[in-house]
Amino acid sequence: MINCRSFLLVCCCLILLLSPAANARQAELSRAEEIVLKLGGTPPAFAYISTLLTRALELREYVVHVRNRGDIPTTRLEVMLERGEISAFILGPTPRRDQLFLPVHVGMTDGLVNRRILFIPQGSQAVYDQVKTLDDFKRLGKVAGLGGAWSDRDIWAANDLPVIAIGGDWKRLYQMVAARNRGMDYLPRGAHEIALEWPAHPQLQVERNLVLVYDQDHILYVSPADPDLHALLQEVLVEARDSGLIAELAADFFAAAFEPPVNMNQRRVIPLPLP
């Protein structure tokens, strides 16, 4: 009698599992564990954001599929983010971006991007050697070349530092600063960025002594087309920060920021107050 009841119970379970409704539910559960991320940016930026988001989501047992949209200028990526053509992008926080996109207020570079080190034309180091304070730096009257979409524009303006900003592809700034005839004297880059970029730009040199520091890391902005992803990433990125995952990945990806010629921890700090 017991064996008969067991047999009937197994049969009922099999019927339920094989029914269309049960199959649909199983498929739904499987899909819920998978996330497709559409990302873009320079190769180093793409590698970092894709690894960080993948690792953070995998800790929640999601299966992550990443689609690379390519090395596209920041201004274009922001348009794509607004339209939902990319899922998320790391940017400096601004009020305008907070309105257009869905911000996740977690520092994404462990404070490396807000430590700005200067690309300067070859042979111009002596001009900066005597700078000890922000006032000293201001007295030089040197003009920064910045991308039109960079949050640095507001910070430089708030500190009365002259700027020329360009629209479109900001990568033109390397050559414009090196040319010495475009009104731009230096190009500030995050410590982790300049550590990767300097070998590709022999017409420029890394300024040896200074690091301009403001208290504002870059954050993740999520497309307004994907509020569910935003809600999830708000949770997992807090966990990634608190667990030390972000610090671990930043140190791993950007170890060169602590080595010559960048030597981030051996520089004279020039604080830049925020607006």
Break the fold down into its secondary structure elements and pairings:
Elements: H1 2-18, H2 20-32, E1 34-39, H3 43-58, E2 63-68, H4 74-83, E3 88-91, H5 95-100, E4 102-104, E5 115-121, H6 134-140, E6 144-147, H7 152-158, E7 163-166, H8 173-179, E8 187-190, H9 191-197, E9 204-206, E10 210-213, E11 219-222, H10 227-243, H11 245-253, E12 268-271
Helix pairs in contact: 3-11
Keywords:
single chain, 275 residues, alpha/beta, D-Maltodextrin-Binding Protein, domain 2, 2 domains, three-stranded antiparallel beta sheet, 11 helices
Describe this structure in words.
The chain is an alpha/beta fold. The chain has 2 domains: 31-111 and 217-254, Periplasmic binding protein-like II (D-Maltodextrin-Binding Protein, domain 2); 115-216 and 258-271, D-Maltodextrin-Binding Protein, domain 2, CATH 3.40.190. Helix content is 42%, strand content 19%. Strands 5, 8, 9, 10 and 12 form a 5-stranded mixed sheet that branches. Helix 3 links the parallel strand 1 and strand 2 (63-68). Helix 3 packs antiparallel against helix 11. 32% of the residues are buried.
